[in-house]
Amino acid sequence: MRRSGTGPDGLVVVDKPAGLTSHTVVSRIRKLAGTRRVGHAGTLDPMATGVLVIGVERATRLLGHLALTSKTYQATIRLGQDTVTDDAEGEVTATASAARVTRAAIDTGIAKLTGDILQVPAKVSAIKVDGQRSHRLVRAGEEFELAARPVTVSAFTLHEVRQATAADGTPLLDLDVTVDCSSGTYVRALARDLGADLGTGGHLTALRRTRVGPYTLEQAHTLEQLTDSFGVLPIGEAAAAAFPRWDVDEEKARRLINGVRQKAPGLGPGPIAVFGPQERFIALVEERRGETKILAGFA
Fold first, then answer.
1. Contacts of 8 (CB under 8 A, 6+ apart)
2. Any residues with CB less than 8 A from the CB of 192 and at least 6 apart, and which?
3. What is the domain class of 71-211 according to CATH?
4. All structural domains of the chain with their residue ranges
5. By the 8 A CB rule, do 55 and 36 touch?
6. Residue by residue, what is the 3-state secondary structure of 206-234?
7. Which of 35 and 139 is assigned the larger pLDDT?
8. Across residues 63-81, what is the average pLDDT?
9. CATH topology classification for 10-69+213-234
10. Whether residue 193 lies in the annotated active site
């Protein structure tokens, strides 16, 4: 039963439009859900569109774990220009002809950026440097460097190469790609690094997220659709879709609710969604030395 004055417990998969920040989308969902207890799993830049997973009420406890899942993006990379933000939102800082770049060279460059790699994040980002957001340091004209981070690009697929032209007539190339990657990967940094490897510079001109973990565009709703008919994916269904499921009897459920560690079910690393009788979602747990440790309780 919903508590008086609160929203429903569950997830909302939003198809974020271009031009809005993730924070703005969260604010709109707060109004539609009638609660301030709303958050999101994995920020999308204003230019980007696509899947933004929003948690309402108790489902916000799932978000930190959902944010760590893999993601899929469709993107367009422009070779021949660097920008201050590594995407089309920023000022062009350098232009170089991409006329002599071959498909073979592009394929080789993409291969270098596939697999387990070290990536320097985009400077215009929310990463903190000495307690300050790096994008604020960039806009203040500060000089600084970000450390490379390990990320995994499990697939980097090139679909099409198209000719383009800069305002000054310089030949450019646009690459339509799909990227499957781990949490924390910056697709615009992939565009920057591919351009640097090819000697032309590069940035992102379009980005659409098509998947976050098990949640895809097919399940997503536009803000207009949600305004007309607001609803959530119930928290139990959301957990069962995202994590391995462990069904327990009433006695084990009671013990878990009371914080008593149980013998782990052997479902591997990562969060496990625990369900008691009558499809009751009890908790997210993880295995530690053969026993369960509760990550978040929902009983």
1. 2, 33, 56, 57, 231, 232
2. 82, 86, 122, 201, 202, 203
3. alpha beta
4. 10-69+213-234, 71-211, 243-297
5. no
6. EEEEEEECCEEHHHCECHHHHHHCCCCEE
7. 35
8. 92
9. Pseudouridine synthase (3.30.2350)
10. no
Q: What are phi and psi of 272, to 5 degrees?
A: -125, 130
- φ, ψ of residue 130 to 5 degrees: the values are 50, 45
* Most confident of the following: 61-70, 125-134, 161-170, 287-296: 161-170
The burial of 19, by beta-carbon neighbours within 10 Å (0-12 exposed, 13-18 middle, 19 or more buried), is given as exposed
Are the CB atoms for 43 and 22 separated by under 8 Å?
Answer: yes
Tokens of 136: 């604020």
Rounded to 10°, the helix 187-198/103-112 angle is: 130
Residues 180/212, Cβ–Cβ less than 8 Å:
no
Residue with tokens 């690459």: 175
Query: Which is it for strands 71-79 and 202-212: parallel, antiparallel or unpaired?
Result: antiparallel
Pairing of strands 202-212, 49-56: parallel
* Cα(135)–Cα(262) distance, integer angstroms: 45
Q: What CATH fold (topology level) applies to the domain 243-297?
A: 2.30.130
Which DSSP symbol is given to 132? E
- Please name the amino acid found at residue 299: A
What tokens does 67 get?
A: 């944010």
pLDDT surpassing 90 at residue 144: no
- Tell me, yes or no, if the two domains 10-69+213-234 and 243-297 fold the same way: no
Q: Looking at the predicted structure, is the pLDDT value of residue 147 above 90?
A: no
pTM for the structure as a whole: 0.90
Residue 101 CA: distances (Å) to CA of 78, 184, 190: 12, 29, 17
Q: Which of 45, 86, 87, 193 is catalytic?
A: 45
